[in-house]
Amino acid sequence: TQLLEQSPQFLSIQEGENLTVYCNSSSVFSSLQWYRQEPGEGPVLLVTVVTGGEVKKLKRLTFQFGDARKDSSLHITAAQPGDTGLYLCAGARSNDYKLSFGAGTTVTVRA
Amino acid sequence: DTAVSQTPKYLVTQMGNDKSIKCEQNLGHDTMYWYKQDSKKFLKIMFSYNNKELIINETVPNRFSPKSPDKAHLNLHINSLELGDSAVYFCASSQGLAVGGPVEQYFGPGTRLTVT
């Protein structure tokens, strides 16, 4: 059973459109991270959120941590082909050494 | 300079064989990990070492044995390979442990293991 559920599993949009990826859980996380993985490479950290309700912006990417620290979203404005990749959310619980990953959302931005 | 490197990049072998994957990090981190990513892209922790001490050992068959000769290296040896072992294996490192805290993990490029 996965702790973190990501939706949608696949997302294909045209360049210039906006998209949102969701990461949900019934567990509370002390921190939540978003990674992007490109084909043939390992995941690379995009952002870490630690406070309920926190919003972080990274250029055209906006990350939000839910008030109850059980969910998060990633919003991309005016998507570009370079945003194509597998987006993974990962959470750390207060009593756990390990990082639990969601199954990922594959985003394809068509030129 | 590559921060986390793995060898080999690709590994094709037959069922029943024994193989090893090597990982090295030059970031000076004290914690290293092995993850398995299946065909559906789900990334699951297998092992973690902190200062050469095993701290995470998920439900992984005994055929998988990690070895950390020093803080910069974490190798994975797999005995009696099975078809279900086919996956991409990622090594990662971080400074410190994610005990509820936000540690950034740096991943290697992965080793694609195919068992035929």
For the secondary structure, the number of strands of chain B is 11
Query: Distance between termini of chain B?
Result: 34 Å
Radius of gyration of chain A: 13 Å
Give the N-to-C terminal Cα separation of chain A: 37 Å
**Low-pLDDT ranges of chain A:** none
Series of H and E elements of chain B: EEEEEEEEEEE
Total count of helical runs of at least 4 residues of chain A: 0
Biggest sheet details of chain A: 6 strands, mixed
Structural class of chain B: mainly beta
User: Which range does the strand content of chain B fall in?
Assistant: over 45%
Q: How many E-type strands of chain A?
A: 11
- Measured as a percent range, the helix fraction of chain A is under 10%
Shape of chain A: globular
Largest sheet of chain B: 7 strands, mixed
The coarse overall form of chain B would be globular
Query: Strand pairing plus helix content of chain A: what structural class?
Result: mainly beta
Largest interface: A-B, 28 and 27 residues
pLDDT averaged over residues of chain B: 92
Provide a short characterization of the protein structure.
The complex is a heterodimer of chains A (111) and B (116). Chain A is an all-beta fold and 111 residues long.
Structural features, described:
The complex is a heterodimer of chains A (111) and B (116). With 111 residues, chain A is mostly beta strands. Helices cover 0% and strands 53% of the residues of chain A. Chain A is built from no helices and eleven strands. Chain A has strands at residues 5-7, 10-14, 19-24, 31-37, 44-49, 55-58, 61-65, 71-76, 85-92, 99-101, 105-110. In chain A, strands 2, 4, 5, 9, 10 and 11 form a six-stranded mixed beta sheet that branches. In chain A, β4 (31-37) and β5 (44-49) form a beta hairpin. The radius of gyration of chain A is 13 Å and the shape is globular. The N and C termini of chain A lie far apart (37 Å). The model of chain A has no long low-confidence stretch (mean pLDDT 94). By secondary structure, chain B is mostly beta strands. In chain B, 0% of the residues lie in helices and 54% in strands. Chain B is built from no helices and eleven strands. Chain B has strands at 4-7, 10-13, 19-25, 31-37, 43-50, 53-57, 64-70, 73-78, 87-94, 106-107, 111-115. In chain B, a hairpin with a 2-residue loop joins β5 (43-50) and β6. Chain B is globular and about 40 Å long. Chain B starts with a strand and ends with a strand. The mean pLDDT of chain B is 92. Chain A binds chain B through residues 2, 30-31, 33, 37, 40-45, 48, 50, 86, 88, 92-101, 103-104, 106, and chain B through 4, 40-45, 48, 55-56, 58, 90, 92, 97-110.
